[in-house]
Amino acid sequence: MIMDMKNIAVLASGRGTNFQAIIDGVDSGLIKGRICCLITDNPSAYSIERAEKAGIPVKVIDFSSFGDRTDYNSALCRGMEETGADLFVLAGYMRLLDDDTVRQFPGKMINIHPALLPSFKGLHAHKQAIEYGVKISGCTVHFVDEEMDHGAIIAQSPVPVMDDDTEDSLAERILKEEHKALQRSVALFCEDLLRIENRKVKILSAKKD
Fold it and tell me: Which residue spans traverse the membrane (predicted)?
C-alpha cells in the first residue's frame, strides 16, 4: 500500500539551516513528503531566500505589525490552517506558540532544541550547558505540547562539551547533529512510523508495500 505524501510546513525566524536540512532531505528522497510552505515572523529572515530558491511558498506573519500577542497568535493559527499541512516543524522559530494554537494541531508539530531535554530548556541552551559544566550536551527533536520544550521526545543526539568550548563552538557542533536528527524525525513522521504512548514515542518498523 502506497501512502499519500505528507505536506510539511516549516516555521523559522532566522537563517534557516534546519529548514535547509529538511529541503535537502526531501530533495534526496530521505523524506517522503513535500514542503508546502515556510511561515516566518521575520520579514528579513534568510530562510525566505532559501524558500524562494527551492520554489516553496512563503507566509510572512510579521509579529511587529500586530497590536498585541493575541492578534498575532490568531493570525498565525489561521495561516497554519491555510497551509493544509500534515506536519508543522518549528525550525528555529523564536516565538512561543500559545496553548490554543498547540491544541489546534495535536501530534502534528515537532520542534528541534539544542540541548538534551529535559536539561537546559528555553533560550541560550549552549550557554546554560557550558556554565553548568556538563560533559555531554546535544540536541532533541520532540513533539510540541503546551509547555515549553516539554513534549514527547522523538530523537536525541549527544555531542561532547570540550573544556575550551564557547557558546559558538558548541552551537556549531550541535547544529550538525540537529540537521541529521531533524531529517530522521521528519522522515519517520512522513512514513507514519511514530506513535505516542504514555508520553513515550515509539518508532514502528518500516511498512512494506
Answer: none
The grid coordinates listed for 63 are 509579529
Q: Which residues of the chain have pLDDT under 70?
A: 1-3, 207-209
Domains of the chain in start order, with CATH, are: 6-203 (3.40.50.170)
Options 113, 126, 142, 179, the catalytic residue: 113
User: Residue 194 is placed in which grid cell?
Assistant: 511514530
Q: Catalytic: 126?
A: no
**pLDDT tens, residue by residue, 87-144:** 999 999 999 899 999 999 999 999 999 999 999 999 999 999 999 999 999 999 999 9
> Contact at 8 Å (CB) between 201 and 152?
yes
**Which residue reads 510579521 in cell numbers?**
62
How many residues are there in the chain?
209
